[in-house]
Structure formats: structure tokens, C-alpha cells
TrEMBL record:
Acyl-CoA dehydrogenase C-terminal domain span: 237-379
KW Oxidoreductase (keyword) present: yes
PANTHER family, alphabetized: ACYL-COA DEHYDROGENASE (PTHR43884), ISOVALERYL-COA DEHYDROGENASE, MITOCHONDRIAL-RELATED (PTHR43884:SF12)
UniProt keyword annotations, A-Z: Oxidoreductase
A GO MF label: flavin adenine dinucleotide binding
One BP annotation, GO: L-leucine catabolic process
InterPro entries noted in UniProt: Acyl-CoA_DH_C, Acyl-CoA_Oxase/DH_mid-dom_sf, AcylCo_DH-like_C, AcylCoA_DH/ox_N, AcylCoA_DH/ox_N_sf, AcylCoA_DH/oxidase_NM_dom_sf
Residue span(s) of domain Acyl-CoA dehydrogenase/oxidase N-terminal: 29-119
Signal peptide: none
Protein name as catalogued: Acyl-CoA dehydrogenase
Pfam family, one: Acyl-CoA_dh_2
Length: 409
């Protein structure tokens, strides 16, 4: 028997798509209004909880749907097509679910039961300012029968919607790096929506401050026990966001082209041909459709590699697990390079299918490029492409855990 007993049968992908399509359609219907008025998607994330999306990977016996990683990322692309903000807001939650799935059952099941009931987690990992690379200012300190957490985090994506915060810290007594799963609803935690980026404005990203926040023992996890393919997993969420942004732009522009009445006298079809029949305009949309398709295909192929890493984590074959984790990281990086390039080109070129009216702020078409560009700025692709080349030529193993911080001097 593996580390985990068999959880349950995985539902068919078509069944899952049918289950969530109405919810995604409702989310898409309000995306422009939310963007223009900066309305955080609290209600929409509530719909996803009720439908079971946030428990997609949670085993059936704990109240979830028992889906695979490929199914999860396939559906996450669909959700990102409806609203990239909502998809990325769940990034840390999905990762913590994955981590607790890989953990020994005695450690993971308390969290899987909570997630199966619809509770979700946000993020508290990155520190900004003068913190040096390798340092972590946020501390976990023994306190009575539990612990206290003190520190400040930025880029706290999804935390404003969550019941828990997946927090990276160090122990003040031993200096060991740890994960602290901190309850949001308590006096020692404050969460702000102060993300100032030009894209992905509604992801709930901002500052989280811990001042003597209570941490129960089951929420303290040594960092070395974190699931090994986590960096690949986090990148796959961003790949899904990028792919969804391309599909969303394609959807919106196709609808505008189909309804467009005005054309140019020097168009390929001439003054008497509707825009929807102009061969050059159709080529623009066809090419963008192919680019979005390729980004999706690359992301799902990388998700299959992550699924293999999940499966080897359940066994005792370390060599197989090492190989699966290397492959998951490399494939996620390759898919990242493809998704960044294809999504940004597709979205930008789609404006060629419309006139100057496409810049009307009421349409909010610019959100697709801004959102994709913002997602593409995470985990800089230039470094990942170098790592891919270094592995190909020199056999250098990819970096799995990395930090950002100030350079001395």
C-alpha cells in the first residue's frame, strides 16, 4: 500500500465541466463591471466554494471531488477565461490543498476536512523592502500550548477572501524555516487590499500583518516537508491565467467583430463586405485562436508531469520521485515560456481586428493585456529559459525553491 490509501474514483472531465460551466458563465458575466468599479470577487469565490471547485482535488471521503491535476488545470483555464483575477486569487489555496494531499494522512486530514467544507487559504510568503535574499523577518515563536506569529507580508494573493493564510516564516527559537497556516479571523491579523499593479487588480493581493497572531500546533509544518513540485505547481496556475486571458480576449473580440457594422474602404473585402467576412480579420482571429490553443496544450502537458510527481510522492522510490520532480519543473518552465509569448502576442494582435473604438474604456479590452502582462511578470521567464538551456546542455538540475530580496551593498 502506498503512503495514501486509494482515495476514490476520479470523476470524468466532461462531468466536471458540465458542473462548473454555469458558475464560470455567471462569473464571466460580471467581469467588466468588477474591473471598471474595482469590485473584489467575494461573491464569485463564494459561488465556487458552493459548487465544490475549491475542493476539486480534495478526496471524496473528505467532502471533495477527487479530481486529478490535469482536470484541475483544465478547469482553471476555463475559470481564468471567465475572470483571470478569480483564478489567480485561488493560487495559494490550490497549492496548500496539494501540499496537504502529499502529507502523511495523520497530518493532512484535518486540513483536507476543512477544505472539503469550503474553507480556503490565502498567501503570506513574500517580504519587501530591505529584507536580504535568504532572510525571513516573519517569526513563529512558541507561546503556551501553541505559537505566535509576527511579521509583515506583501503579494498576499487571495488572503482577503480566505479563512487561512499559508505563511512562510522562521522559528525564533531554532531558526528553522516553517509553514504557518494561520487563521485570518483573529485580532492579530490584518489584511489590506493595497495591491498597486496595473493588472490583476482584483486578486485580493496586498499586505498582511501579523502581530501576535495565534497559531495552533496542527498549523505548523517544517518547510522541508513541503510538497516538492510546488514551484512547478505555482507556475502552472500562472500559465492557466495567461492562457485564460488569451481565450477571454479572443471571445470578446470575436463577439465585437461578429456585431461590427463599420468597415474600411481599403479593407481586403472592400467597402461592401461585412467585417465578419473580411479574410484578413478572420485570419487575425484564427491565428489568436491557434495561439491560445497551443498555450492550453502546453499547460496541460506540464500538468501531466506534475501529476506524475504527485503519484511518485505517494511511493517509496526516491529515484523515480527525483526524476518526476525534475521533469515537472522543466515542463512547467517550458510551458511558461510558451504561454507568456503566445498569450501576449495573441492579445495584442487581436486589436488589429478592430478599429480605434476597441480602445473605448467601457469595453475594458485592455484588461486582458494588463492582466496577462502582470501574470507574465511573476517568476521571470528569462531565468526559467536559461535554466531550461542549462539543463539541456550541462545537465544542471533546476532550482526548486528560491527567494527574492535585497542585495548587500
Amino acid at each position: 500500500m502506498t503512503k495514501h490509501d486509494r482515495w476514490d474514483e476520479v470523476p470524468a472531465t466532461d462531468d466536471l465541466k458540465a458542473r462548473f460551466r454555469p458558475v464560470f458563465d455567471r462569473i464571466a458575466a460580471g467581469s467588466v463591471k468588477r474591473e471598471r468599479a474595482r469590485i473584489l470577487p467575494h461573491e464569485e469565490i463564494g459561488w465556487l466554494k458552493e459548487a465544490g471547485f475549491t475542493a476539486l482535488r480534495v478526496p471524496v471521503e473528505y467532502g471533495g471531488l477527487g479530481g486529478s491535476l490535469v482536470q484541475q488545470f483544465d478547469l482553471l483555464i476555463d475559470l481564468a477565461t471567465a475572470d483571470t483575477n478569480v483564478a489567480q486569487a485561488l493560487r495559494s489555496h490550490l497549492a496548500l490543498v496539494e501540499d496537504r494531499l502529499v502529507a502523511p494522512r495523520a497530518q493532512g486530514e484535518v486540513w483536507l476536512r476543512r477544505f472539503g467544507k469550503g474553507e480556503i487559504a490565502g498567501n503570506g510568503w513574500t517580504e519587501i523592502g530591505a529584507v536580504k535574499i535568504g532572510d525571513t523577518i516573519t517569526k513563529v515563536t512558541p507561546d503556551g500550548d501553541g505559537f505566535r506569529v509576527d511579521g509583515e507580508k506583501y503579494y498576499s494573493t487571495g488572503t482577503i477572501f480566505a479563512e487561512w493564510i499559508d505563511t512562510y516564516a522562521t522559528r525564533s527559537d531554532t531558526g528553522a524555516p516553517v509553514i504557518a497556516i494561520v487563521k485570518v479571523a483573529q485580532p492579530g491579523v490584518s489584511v489590506s487590499d493595497d495591491w498597486a499593479g496595473f493588472g490583476q487588480k482584483l486578486t485580493g493581493t496586498g499586505t498582511t500583518v501579523f502581530k501576535g497572531a495565534r497559531l495552533d500546533p496542527e498549523g505548523l509544518v517544517p518547510f522541508e516537508q513541503r510538497f516538492r513540485y510546488q514551484t512547478a505547481f505555482y507556475q502552472l496556475v500562472l500559465n492557466a491565467v495567461l492562457t485564460g486571458a488569451a481565450f477571454a480576449a479572443l471571445r470578446d473580440v470575436a463577439q465585437l467583430v461578429a456585431a461590427r457594422k463599420r468597415t474600411f474602404s481599403h479593407s481586403a473585402g472592400g467597402a461592401g463586405v461585412p467585417v465578419r467576412q473580411d479574410p484578413q480579420i478572420l485570419q487575425v482571429l484564427g491565428r489568436a485562436r491557434a495561439q491560445a490553443y497551443a498555450a492550453r496544450a502546453a499547460t496541460l502537458e506540464a500538468a501531466r508531469a506534475a501529476q506524475r510527481a504527485y503519484e511518485t510522492a505517494q511511493g517509496a522510490d526516491k529515484a523515480a520521485d527525483d526524476a518526476a520532480n525534475i521533469e515537472a519543473e522543466l515542463q512547467a518552465a517550458a510551458a511558461q515560456s510558451v504561454a507568456v509569448d503566445l498569450a501576449l502576442r495573441a492579445i495584442s494582435d487581436l486589436f488589429n481586428a478592430l478599429g480605434a473604438s476597441s480602445s473605448d474604456s467601457a469595453l475594458a479590452l485592455d484588461r486582458h493585456w494588463r492582466n496577462a502582462r502582470t501574470a507574465a511578470s511573476h517568476n521571470p521567464v528569462i531565468y526559467k529559459e536559461r535554466i531550461l538551456g542549462d539543463h539541456l546542455v550541462n545537465g544542471t538540475e533546476p532550482v526548486y525553491v528560491w527567494q527574492i530580496g535585497a542585495v548587500a551593498g
